[in-house]
Amino acid sequence: MKSWCHRENKGYSLSNRKMAQDYIARVVLGRTKVGEYFKLAHSSSRRSRRKRRKQFRQQHREELRPNDDMRRTIVAYGDASVRGTYKGNTPIPVKQVQKAIAEKAIVIPTDEFRTSVTCCHCHQRLVNVALLIYICNHRKKKHRSSFFWGNMIESRSTLKCYNEENHILHRTSQCPERRLTNNLFFIPYIITQLLTSLYSLGNRVIYPLKLCPQCPANNENRLHWNRDVNAATSIRTILVEYIRQGFNLESRPA
Question: What does the alpha-carbon distance between residue 51 and residue 47 come to, in Å, rounded to a whole number?
Fold first, then answer.
């Protein structure tokens, strides 16, 4: 009985993985959009899933690629060999998604070196964007107080300021000597790492956001980019130039 249940669960897991990969491929190719009805195999039938998907596509017919469009799609897929995700996030099957897209379109692995830190318009180096940062000169350390701090007991450790005698003064977020740094809105990578080590500001840099300080596409003004959108646009540009220049390996923009 146990072996039968084990085989059934393995079959459901395989079906669910195939469904998820096919769904991602159709979203990439414009055959559907995010928000389509999606239910796992063990809790629905094939007939009900097809019916719900058909209704969804009819509602968004104008936004999707028509079914009679038989042109082959070319997808520029970054060739970086990295883990699917970082610790603490949902894993992404990078290679499996690439295979699923390759079953429906032409996939060309493309060099994605520095595409996320280079502006896709002017090819200048992008800089990190930081939140407004308040700093003080006290020594800091994370600590969880076992006694009443204010009107409550701390449930987790917080960053606190210490004096020269190693006594807790107050929470760093409530330090009266904190001062706002001078217009610290965008900072280069090296300065970001220095501030992180000195003031424990590891969560101050906005990772998904990048800034081009003087972009010609925005009349020499600041231009903010979503990191992933900028990288995807750069990868597409690399592939287009490669094809236009007769598959020349030196055709990549700077």
Answer: 6
C-beta separation of 238 from 248 below 8 A: no
Q: Using alpha carbons, select from 48, 36, 42, 34 the residue that is nearest to residue 17.
A: 42
Per-residue pLDDT of 178-228, as tens digits, reads 877 644 444 454 444 444 444 444 446 788 889 888 888 888 888 889 999
Alpha-carbon distance of 137 to 165, in angstroms, equals: 15
Angle of CA points 79, 83, 87, to nearest 5°:
150
What span, in angstroms and rounded, lies between the C-alpha atoms of 74 and 40? 29
The conformation of residue 118, written as its DSSP 8-state character, comes to: B
Q: Using DSSP, how many helices (H) and how many strands (E) does the chain show?
A: 5, 13
- Eight-class DSSP state of 222: E
**SS3 of 78, please?**
strand
User: Can you tell me which residue has the tokens 């007939």?
Assistant: 47
Specify the DSSP element, H or E, that contains 169: strand 168-171
What is the C-alpha to C-alpha distance for residues 22 and 19, in angstroms, rounded to an integer?
5
Angstrom distances, CA of residue 52 to CA of 5, 48, 87, 181: 29, 6, 35, 54
Instruction: Give the predicted TM-score (pTM) of the model.
Output: 0.65
Quote the crossing angle between the two packed helices 2-28 and 94-102, to the nearest 10°.
70
Contact by Cβ (8 Å): 40, 12? yes
Nearest Cα to Cα of residue 227 among 139, 89, 126:
126
